[in-house]
Amino acid sequence: MNKAVERWHSERLHRQVTLARWGHHGQPVLLFPTAGGDAEEMERWHMLGVLSHLVEAGRIKVYSCDSIAGEVLMSREGNAQHQMWIQDQFHRYIRHEVIPAIRTDCKSPDIEVWSAGASIGAFNAVAVLCRFPDVFSRAIGMSGTYDLRRFYDCHPGQFTDHFWVSSPLHFVPTLAGPHLDKLRTRFVLLPSGEGRAEDIGESWRLAHVLGSHGIPNRVDSWGPDWPHDWVTWRKMLPQILDDWT
Hints:
Strand order of the largest sheet: 1-2-4-3-5-6-7-8
CATH superfamily: Alpha/Beta hydrolase fold, catalytic domain
Largest sheet: 8 strands, mixed
Order of helices and strands: EEEHHEHHEHEHHHEHEH
CATH architecture: 3-Layer(aba) Sandwich
Number of helices: 10
Strand content: 15-25%
Structural class: alpha/beta
Distance between the termini: 19 Å
CATH topology: Rossmann fold
Radius of gyration: 17 Å
Number of domains: 1
Shape: globular
CATH class: Alpha Beta
């Protein structure tokens, strides 16, 4: 499988970043790692193996970036307000650095991108679509964790605007005008198991927020046999992308 890795210093995140790519052509899909995973996590956990038939057929072109915000949060870099700032900057880095890199690689200045991820990766996949519906057209949030407030070591009154503008549960209800109009033409899929360590209630809560504002979405329950783990996500993602392409 054709693979390329690009690295640069992000002016928004103030650190070295990595973008990995697999495939020659096809619909670009940006996969967000879990928690503090890096750009090649998907390959190590054999996700690229189960997607290989779609990649090699030219139906999709897979990209993945480092989970900078998740790494900063899990390692407790700085204080909570710094971690919230990084979360906001991470999404801005995706829009203003990663998307141009993908479009350059695809030789298309306006190609739309699909986003996908599991757990906290699902949070980022949905968040970037909701924040930037001008460039993302579909999102797949597998086994999503969508309310990140419990991960920050601070009091309720200490959450900053950087957090609120990054969290779709909280910023979607504030949207209006052309941004919301565009978002209503997009689609969010929220598949989740109901087995070990899963909480499908997070997906239903997000679906309610999206649906109440006219944003097309669907929750897919895979039932109690599917845990919060790679075995589930390796089954989900190729099936979904096979249907979509």
